């Protein structure tokens, strides 16, 4: 018997409650961008660039599912766009239901806290691993310290950055459920493991994707500075150009995936 419930992984493919395909007005495209920037989604709605095809419901209300028609050298291609919610449990649940639609290629774009002062605000980071300091991933993978994105997705994000001439870095994230418990000692420990940024969903995303056999990657931009000398917001959530750029990179990357 395991000492702690969180380590009692059960690999059974079916649970008592399983993801149900959301009701949609037309088939979903096979590729999706999970965008944490509600302001970017609202701006595209005002511009008429998104078409709602359905929604996922929760006690928070409706979580709309949109289709974006993206221009590519090969002609227009459709991408599903959705906000995944905030925090690993909600984000994982929304991901599960989108997978139930038949979507099999995902890129998430969002922000993160910077653990290193030299990581300037707005700098893109393509995640290569996430330390599992949250709870959701342990229901999808056996106990372990890290979860990983799909190599194909990382390559696609790098290619998208290079194609746009964007300077980026590859980095490991610290995924945590307790943003008010990012203590100095825990920060030092995570940095000793190679973490450069901190956020709340990546480890869960990567675990769900591996369990469900879909491709998943994530790009974030450096936001607030998380250092013992004093937390600095750095006005990270007011950087509209950076947020739109992350979305554009995510769309470009997911269209490169097969």
Report what the structure shows:
With 258 residues, the protein is an alpha/beta fold. The protein has 6 helices and 10 strands. It has helices at residues 38-46, 88-100, 151-163, 184-192, 202-212, 240-255, and strands at 31-35, 50-58, 61-70, 77-82, 105-114, 124-133, 146-147, 169-176, 195-199, 215-225. It has a 5-stranded mixed barrel, surrounded by 4 helices. Helix 3 crosses helix 6. The longest helix is centred in the C-terminal third of the chain and has 16 residues, at 240-255. The chain is globular, with a radius of gyration of 18 Å. The termini are far apart.
The ordered H/E elements are EHEEEHEEEHEHEHEH
Radius of gyration: 18 Å
How far apart are the first and last residues' alpha carbons, in Å? Answer: 42 Å
Helix content, binned percent: 25-40%
- Poorly predicted sequence stretches spanning 5 or more consecutive residues: none
Trace the largest sheet across and list its strands.
Answer: 5-9-8-6-10
Mean pLDDT: 95
Shape: globular
How many β-strands, per DSSP?
Answer: 10
> β content, as a range?
25-35%
Describe the sheet with the most strands. Answer: 5 strands, mixed, barrel
Please tally the helical runs, counting DSSP H or I stretches of 4 or more residues: 6
Given helix and strand content, the structural type is: alpha/beta
Short description:
This protein is of the alpha/beta class and 258 residues long. It has six helices and ten strands.
Key phrases:
five-stranded mixed barrel; 6 helices
